[in-house]
Design goal:
single chain; Nuclear Transport Factor 2, Chain: A; about 20% helix; six-stranded mixed β-sheet; about 160 residues; alpha+beta; 6 strands
Length: about 160
């Protein structure tokens, strides 16, 4: 697969913008149906957990259905973590292509997210490892692993925080 760095960055920036603008349908459309969306936890030895099936995770969705359920809860006010919805600003930096395969590209990038709610601003930061899959003329996310570096937080995390 040919690597188009600008198209990769555009896909990442677009996903971040959809979160900031609360464009949930467009955000979900950034993902393949079989996406794995995972935020491992840090263990007692300060290492990320390695298996979402047997170890604790901060977030884990085995496919897009889990993300769709999350969005449904946000939209229907069935998520106390999301009421009121925070105002967010996602910043994507240090985008690096790790590998390219037939129809997929492995990417690593850093993120900083500011989240404002209840007259307070929280800061979340970390590294994302993801795989982009070429589907027709788009790059869609087929795997996303989020290493949240500041995991001692005072609230429940949601998809728009990272």
């Amino acid at each position: 697969m040919t690597i188009d760095y600008q198209a990769i960055c555009q896909a990442l920036y677009q996903e971040a913008r959809f979160l900031d603008d609360r464009q949930w349908d467009e955000w979900l459309a950034c993902y393949t149906a079989d996406v794995t969306y995972w935020m491992p936890a840090w263990d007692d030895d300060d290492k990320l957990t390695e298996d979402p099936q047997t170890e604790i995770s901060l977030m884990y969705y085995a496919d897009r259905g889990g993300l769709e359920d999350r969005v449904f809860r946000i939209r229907t006010e069935r998520s106390s973590a999301s009421m009121p919805e925070p105002r967010t600003s996602h910043n994507v930096t240090n985008v690096e292509v790790l590998a390219a395969h037939d129809h997929e590209i492995d990417v690593r990038y850093n993120f900083n997210t500011l989240s404002h709610r209840y007259k307070m601003t929280d800061h979340f930061f970390g590294t994302v490892y993801l795989t982009l899959r070429k589907v027709e003329d788009r790059l869609l996310i087929s795997r996303k692993k989020i290493a949240l570096k500041n995991d001692y937080i005072r609230q429940v995390l949601d998809v728009y925080h990272v």
